[in-house]
């Protein structure tokens, strides 16, 4: 009875905070119908990914337009029907060959510099204030906040399983195939380390708004870092084919300010 009451209080607290957030943010990580762009970024990493994408697209579109224009000019000026004599006498053009070698090399260097910076930031691990361990199972996720083991009598810390909520059990406003019975709660403006592994087969812990997709491999511990910049409810899914119910392994993260996060911790640890 005590455990049931505790879980009810926790669910009510997280739900009430989520409702408050949704009035301003409305499920930031939920995809919209006919969406073709990125979802709203919630971390500096995802902002960097979007900026890098736009950076590359500038050169891709410019190069594509130039090549199409060049092909059109060649077809118009050097067709056999109009310039047969010039075609027969054409051998090479040194200047053009130098230009089409140097210009692409410069463009590749311009693209490479920000890409190296982005790759470095993905692997950069600053001193984390919170560590979250994620374990993938067929077909659900397990979470463990090992930082707080010493605060509990049995040194178990905070750990729970997270299953997808069936369609018949969804509350109003919850998203089909994305809602879970136990949401992950994390603080904003805090360096967070996420350790990811699997208990059976390959999985992948992915949240688009965080710019995170890390494989969960049995017998291997992968890690990534998070720095969430704004509160909200963020959704993700397993992104590695892992069996029959692969499509029913959603991820739901509630990002709270530090005061709300410590309140949640107190309820979890009964402090």
Write a short abstract of this structure.
The protein is of the alpha+beta class and 271 residues long. Helix content is 38%, strand content 22%. The chain folds into two domains: 2-35 and 127-269, Sandwich (Immunoglobulin-like), CATH 2.60.40; 44-123, Orthogonal Bundle (Helix Hairpins), CATH 1.10.287.90.
Descriptive overview:
- There is one protein chain.
- With 271 residues, the protein is α+β, with helices and mostly antiparallel strands.
- The protein has helices at 2-22, 44-77, 84-89, 94-123, 258-269; strands at 130-137, 140-145, 158-162, 184-187, 192-198, 203-207, 212-216, 222-226, 232-238, 250-256.
- The chain folds into two domains: 2-35 and 127-269, Cupredoxins -  blue copper proteins (Immunoglobulin-like); 44-123, Helix Hairpins (Orthogonal Bundle).
- It contains five helices and ten strands; from the N terminus they run ααααββββββββββα.
- It has a five-stranded mixed β-sheet with strand order 3-2-1-5-8, with no helix packed on it. A five-stranded mixed β-sheet has the order 4-10-9-6-7.
- Helix 1 runs antiparallel to helix 5.
- The chain is elongated.
């Amino acid at each position: 009875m005590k455990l049931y009451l505790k879980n009810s209080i926790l669910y009510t607290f997280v739900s009430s905070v989520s409702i408050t957030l949704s009035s301003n943010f409305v499920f930031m990580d939920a995809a919209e119908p006919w969406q073709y762009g990125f979802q709203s970024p919630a971390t500096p990493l995802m902002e960097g990914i979007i900026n890098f994408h736009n950076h590359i697209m500038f050169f891709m579109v410019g190069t594509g337009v130039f090549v199409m224009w060049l092909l059109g000019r060649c077809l118009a000026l050097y067709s056999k029907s109009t310039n047969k004599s010039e075609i027969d006498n054409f051998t090479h053009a040194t200047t053009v060959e130098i230009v089409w070698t140097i210009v692409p090399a410069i463009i590749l260097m311009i693209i490479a510099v920000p890409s190296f910076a982005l790759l470095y930031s993905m692997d950069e691990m600053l001193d984390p204030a919170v560590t979250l361990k994620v374990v993938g199972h067929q077909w659900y996720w397990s979470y463990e906040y090992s930082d707080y083991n010493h605060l509990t009598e049995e040194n178990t810390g905070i750990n729970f399983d997270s299953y997808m909520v069936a369609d018949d059990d969804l509350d109003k406003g919850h998203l089909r195939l994305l809602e879970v019975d136990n949401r992950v709660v994390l603080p904003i403006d805090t360096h967070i380390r996420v350790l990811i592994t699997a208990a059976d087969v390959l999985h992948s812990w992915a949240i688009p708004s965080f710019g995170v997709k890390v494989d969960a491999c049995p017998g291997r511990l992968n890690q990534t870092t998070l720095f969430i910049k704004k509160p909200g409810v963020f959704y993700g899914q397993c992104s590695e084919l892992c069996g029959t119910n692969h499509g029913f392994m959603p991820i739901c993260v509630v990002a709270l300010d530090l005061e709300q996060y410590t309140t949640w911790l107190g309820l979890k640890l009964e402090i």
